[in-house]
Predict the 3D structure of the following.
Amino acid sequence: MYADKPLNKFLGSLTVNGGLALICLLWTIPTIGLLISSFRDRIDINTTGWWTVFPHQDWVAIEQIKPGPEVDRSGPMTLAGVTRTFEEFSQGITTDDGRRLKWIGNRRVGYLEVQEYRWTSNTQTTLENYRQVLAGDDYTATLKDGSTVTERGDNMGRAFLNSLAVAIPSTVIPISLAAFAAYGFAWMKFPARKMLFALVVALLVVPLQIALVPILRDYVSLELNGTFLAVWLAHTGFGLPLATYLLYNYISELPRDILESAFIDGASHFTIFTRLILPLSVPALASFAIFQFLWVWNDYLVALIFIGASPTSQLLTQRLAEIVGSRGQDWHLLTAGAFITMILPLIVFFSLQRFFVRGMLAGSVKG
Amino acid sequence: MATITPPRVSAAGGEAGRALLAIVPLLATLAALYWGFFYLRDLQSPDAATPPPQILVVLLAIVWGVGGMALLFTTANFFVEQLPPAIMQRLQPLIFVGPAILMLVWALALPTVRTFLLSLYDEGSLNFVGLRNYFGVFTDPAMLTVFRNNLLWMIFGTAFTVSLGLLIAVLADRSRFETLAKALIFMPMAISFVGAGVIWNFMYAVKPADAPQIGLLNSIAVAFGGQPQAWTAFFTPWNNFFLIIIVIWLQTGYSMVLFSAAIKGISTEVLEAARVDGATELQVFFQVMIPMILGTIITVSTTIIIFTLKIFDVVIVMTGGQYDTSVIATEFYRQYFTYNNNGYGSAIAIVLFIAVIPVMAYNLRQFAQREVF
């Protein structure tokens, strides 16, 4: 029995690590497929799976035989030493030496391909998809057969900037307001303080869907709809309960004697807040800022309602959703577009993982 | 709760004059912000004669928004600090707490009341109809499908997110590749729902049966001799599950991290004692670990339940709520913004709110007991 122990241990570790590796693989495959596809040619994406970029066995063309105009394509043809009809060639003929003869294209202008079954990989890559999706003007793409198509670019470059213009103030404003309020609730004396703080906590349960319509009505009457300010204010309102609540928990726990000695030195509330409290709260502020930034960056609903269809102000998520809706089969645009929306969050994730995870856990109860 | 009263400064002469002067920066800031708003709005408008480079507009907007807020706080506070101490002490909390309360009341408290009132009126918000919209919501067969779908989301989304997160946490705890594995599983949390929608649309992509499949799932289905399927379209009611998979993929990272922390909190002595007593690994897991992390399981479950109750983006991007996949939030959007049915749409929003309250209240109680930062 004891002799089995190293073996058992080995098998156990194999199960654990093997199982974990399998799950991790399953979890990353969707993203990897998207990333790989975004660099593939538009025709390739639509005719072969993205996994064919990895080495695999398949029929590979080694020679093309273009029959001259004198060959009668309606009857049997003799090509590469084999006599068959067009229909039979179109199905593919396997010869004795293991090759395959296959007619590509239509009867009149098509050609015969001599193929061999061997290891291959489709490693051709291109940046064209990104160029087209980022461009704002008409974009001319050259297809494989040499013809060109002109399509409207998707202007995601502009949308990327718009997303920044929305996400940065929508992060800084609510966190600042919340930090001021948290300090006020924790260290100032004023009437109805407890009641107001209870209001903040109570509003944590309100789902933002409920607030969209009344706010939209205010914006319409104030002519604010479609402006960045409208989205900032909405995100500020929706983010405030959680931000105030979390920052209050943090700020009220800061050691009391630091503040007292600052007061004795004659510092005002404002000085203490900006010089003392804010620097001490950096970990909490950073974690929540990352959460709020990503929340706003990834948000679709709020942007959809308060920015709407205005083509100059649309955000990344809106542009991407619009391509899904109007050209859902244009995978070369969708894959590149999706990756553009993901790039900044992924950078934040990999560079600030610790704050990222803490922020996400703290933000999980957001309304 | 601790409060501190700043020492009183003896009142000096000319206070009124000082205060009058101090209000100038505040008023100037307000004026500048007001002017800046219209300037920016004209820049942003699509029919501007010569549109400036977008990067300039964006930079200006950020500076105006962030800088404006900082300036407002600073000048308002400067003004208040010039006032006589007695007044200052009354007004200063207003500057600290006031803006947040104002925003909260305008953006959340009032809208809740306003939406409730709207739900009592007809589609044009003109005639009072009492609870008719609510009767409609609970008797409309389309809404019953919607509630069924949310129930599917709640049950299966939560069950799989919790159990997979737990499984991965346990496996990772015993593996040498813990950090890497956890990072890979957590990564989808960074991705937007729209982006995730595209990723999975591509996984589910379908081509005619005689063409090569470019979607991984259909390519596997065909390789095993099946027929290519449009997984999220005419595949009712199973298409709902293919949407739920997306959220499981997105949220398992969250549950895994919480479970991982909880498992590390169990003392190894307890686990060792159970093993010495002859318990198998499975018994240790189900009879020792699970009871000890029950609190975390409840926290994760309630969070995911709330999340699935409010699910919107994934459904709207993948199916638009068609093919019997509509959920409460998408139905609200459709009724209100597509059909302009104000009363009915508002009633759906209120129903969502009421469904969320008990779970959220419970979740917040759990949340309050937990160290967050």
Summary: Chain A touches chain B through 133 residues (CB under 8 Å). Chain A is about 60% helix and 10% strand. Residues 69 and 126 of chain A are 36 Å apart (CA to CA). The longest strand of chain A covers residues 56-65.
